[in-house]
Protein 1
Amino acid sequence: MQLLDELAMIYLECILAYAVFAHRKPPLARILIAISISAMAIFITLYYHYLQDPVFHQNMFALITAVVVFRSMWIMEHILNPNRRGSVGKVNTTEQKRRDERDSHILKTMWRLNYIGLSYVAIAFAIWNLDNIYCGKIRRWRREVGLPWGILLEGHGWWHILTGIAAYNNLTWSIWLRYCRDGKQDLVELDWSSTFTSMPVVVRAKSQEKEL
């Protein structure tokens, strides 16, 4: 059960890796990418089952996540940063300025979404390590505190909550970035009223709703 619990994280990142690297590729290239990523996931699953070493899982998860995140950041900068992207097709100066301002705003918000997600991962990783290092002491504290407040000292539980929020942020970013890669920035926007007390959601842009 622990393997299934932890390997789900690997499989999620593999799906994101496919979404990032296979976008707009020819059919044959998409098939080869899918086969390669599936083979990697199978190898990690079998080797982790053989090793039974959580460190291997952590390293593989960190490696795949880093590749997906940095590749997505590169794409984000090169399609949204006006200084890197250049002009957008044959448009007049007014429209070019509007698109530059729109994309600069999207880019700024995406970076904020990334920073928040990475902060959740960093906090979760710190809690996870502290829980492993001081497991016996924290367990005694939980017994002394008792239910229901002892639940707040469940480090592994906080790991899942915080990484779950980070994964949600990452998925939201990936969805929004995919729209941008298709040149559909005007069709959607991010509904995120508060950084820490609300969850970001990609929704239909208000300008599009008025046209319906």
Protein 2
Amino acid sequence: MNDKVEPLTDFDALDPLREQYRGSLISTRLLRQELAQHHVALLCIDLQYLDAARGFGVFADAAASGVPLKAQEYYFQELENVVLPNVRRLQDAFRAHGLEVIHSRIQSMTRDGRDRSPGHKRLNLHAPPGSKEAEFVESVAPVGDEIVLNKTASGVFNSTNLHYVLRNLDITSIFIVGVYSNECVSTAVRDACDLGFYVTMVEDGCTTVTPELQEATITTIRDRYARVMTTDQAIAEITRVREAS
């Protein structure tokens, strides 16, 4: 496995703190140990009908969604053709190696959503229990007794008992995928990093409504809050380590 750190690009070099962050991230050797000892989980964020399916939830009325039609088309093209297939591949790889796959979704505890966060009330984000909006997209839905966490805010750590669950599972490293990259995914990455987890963001396993937002999110997170990898790189790493252990 190659431990070499890629040189900075001209764009990366604009950030004077970049090198300091790079030196503090999880080493490949440490991650190998985490993988070999089953201390790694895949966290799938908000891949549900509320925000990841045409004609439902946020996009039930395309014109009233607040997302320009061009941005919606970009989002769904990326989601359907890249992100969902890649997330499924990652889920299959984690399952095949006996590693945890954890799912979070937006869902209130009450039918009328009175328990939602002020932010979700303001944005009118609501997926009642048993609603279509609360259902996971079928291709990446939970399997068996995989853990599902319901949240009513952007952050999965501050609105669920995820931190407690991960500690109970002895998880110390998390691979994160889902939507939107610049919102709930980014919040999860940063919170996980701040809580001391080793984080990997899978860049082609998440997306948002414009390529500019996606690029800005990845650039901000890379080497500061998380490693950034492709699906192919993540699967290759998991497979090599698990087969060697």
Protein 3
Amino acid sequence: MSSRPKSAEPKPAREERFAAQSWESLKASGNPIFETAREFADVFPYKIPAELPADRGVRHEIDRAPGSKYCVTRQWPLPRDRVKAIDDVIEGRRQAGYVRESISPHSSSTFYVKKATGGWRIVYAFNKLSDATIPAQTPAPRKDMVLDSMSGSVIYSAIDLTDGFYQILMRESDIPLTAVSTPSGMLWEWLVMPQGLKNAPATFNRMVSHVLRPLRDFAPSYFDDIFVHSRAEGDLSAVEVHVRHLRQVFQVMRENKLYANLKKCVFCAPEIPVLGCYVSKNGVRADLEKISSICSCPTPTSPTELRQWLGLANYLHKYTKDCAGLIQPLSSLLKKDAT
């Protein structure tokens, strides 16, 4: 669902940290957030509870363009084992309260796609519905504003929220639009936001921003990331203030049934990856892994390859003095009259 930029943290480092981080490792490392995080262990479940989500004041809405017709995609046949697998998945969604039987005039087909890691993933063909849906105009958070809000802080945490699918209620009048058929001849409609709907990332971002608005001075969010930053206040150390801030964030998450992936969170660190760069008390720096990738690219041998490399090198613009002047000789080679 998420359309956020990928983490700036080098992949090997991310994999090593994600594989090692657990309640045990947090405790063993003496992380000051351990006791508070354990108090809110329900916010970091191994598996999201299969239940209808809370009404947080934001629902997923589907506004169709004027003159849109019924959105119907024919259900094509699938092998018997796939049909059984789809029925089992839908039954689990029904028991959780996510879907109900439908008599909607709309119908999107259900099928399976192969996962890159092996196995199969259920998919709904919402193509026609997406084509008829008016794009949401909810603005994405500005990266520069998120970074600027963190200046002056000295300790940081990054909380990775689990995907928003099935965690946001549908607007009641739009439920029939979400109807999906199955190869076994059933029609179901979604009471929660399913995978594949247009504007789903915008809805999730709007919901997270809505519930965290009272904490935005120290906990800005960007889609499914929450960045918590703190500094010393009065007689309280920066760590004490940070633990207090995290407690407030955890409390809001608990009240609104928002969940995070413990393995992908960073707590009480002097530096964290934020939207393609690193942030610390010293400011913002470039990701060394990205710089290495740019430097290791083969020498361009055509205008297309040069254009691609310049696109990559544009990442350095914010971190390099007179970057535009430095790359100008290369950019000029792309002009039609260049020799």
